[in-house]
Amino acid sequence: MSSKNETPVNERAGIRQVAELAGVGIASVSRVLSGQSGVSKKMTERVLLAAEQLNYTPNVLAQSLRRRSTRSIGFVCSDITNPLLASIVSGAESVLAASGYSLLLTNSGGMPEMDAEHIEVLQQRQVDGLILLPSLENDDATLHALRKSTMPLVVIDRTLPDDVEANTVLSDHYLGVGVAARALLQQGHRRIGLIVGRDVRPTRERIRAVQDAYQACNAAPDYLIETGILSVAHGERAMAHLLALPNPPTAVILGGNQLLEGALTVIEQHKLILGRDFSLVCCDDVALSRLFSPPIATVMRDNILLGKRAAQLLLGQLENPHEKEQVLLPTWFENRASCGPVSHMLNKPGV
């Protein structure tokens, strides 16, 4: 015969059963399990022991309804296949998990219309806040969804209109690319190509950095800019176009690691040796940058820190809502063997 304190195996124990087994009131169990102060050590031990014996797990949904919080954060990102974004998400999740929040991740695949849809879905899921790295800054549907939202919001590496209430965490792309461009100019390069993505803040800052580097070195603005969607295909097409010019560049800066594979494919087809025949710089460090021979000079940043700071900003807004805040994190240039003094070999027939 079962005693009144035993719970059938297929029946989920509730807070009432825990209270009966511990010999205390339901309110006392609630205070212990929610971590409230003013509960004696002896009572805490009794409640926790009873909960363990009954294999009691709190009803998260019911708790969420009571405190109007789901303890979850939504993350809308443009392309999770990019190692850069995977690092950012990892950094954010480490901070959120330590504070008892789960992360709901959506992937837009670079399609702005999916960004808007995912924002709506996460709001329906009643997440407590949102971290966003959108495909574009000026997509009407995305901006409409954000303006309707009442969730605390942190945007990574994008500049949104002032009427969107969002904290921002930005990388100082201007700093690192500027150092890289000046290093190439100091090595004698005067015709530098820049392959970048669509019209978003990182693209604009990288272009501005190259332009200002030329001006700082009193060099004629003989740079070449190729824009498109950051991808292997764009890297290949843009590099092929640059090297096919009658007067091709002697160095190229890639404004995104997604471009590297395609660009290197074309460089290999032209049988160019990096650092001797041609100079190459990439933005954001990936394994291919380090393992290629010779290693690729890279504009670096701490992507895990980027995610951590985004999560910290969001948690700060949840705990104490305040005026929107902006954080700017550094980038730096790591010169490697893919960069060398200017060469005229690109101008030889057949290249």
Describe the structure.
The chain has 13 helices and 12 strands. With 351 residues, it is an alpha/beta fold. The strands form 2 sheets. The protein has a 6-stranded parallel beta sheet, with helices on both faces. The protein has a 6-stranded mixed beta sheet with strand order 7-6-8-9-10-12, with helices on both faces. α9 (201-216) links the parallel β6 and β7 (224-226). α1 (15-22) crosses α3 (41-53), α6 runs parallel beside α7 (140-148) and α10 runs parallel beside α11 (260-269).
In short:
The protein is an alpha/beta fold and 351 residues long.
Supply database-style keywords.
13 helices, alpha/beta, 6-stranded parallel beta sheet, 351 residues
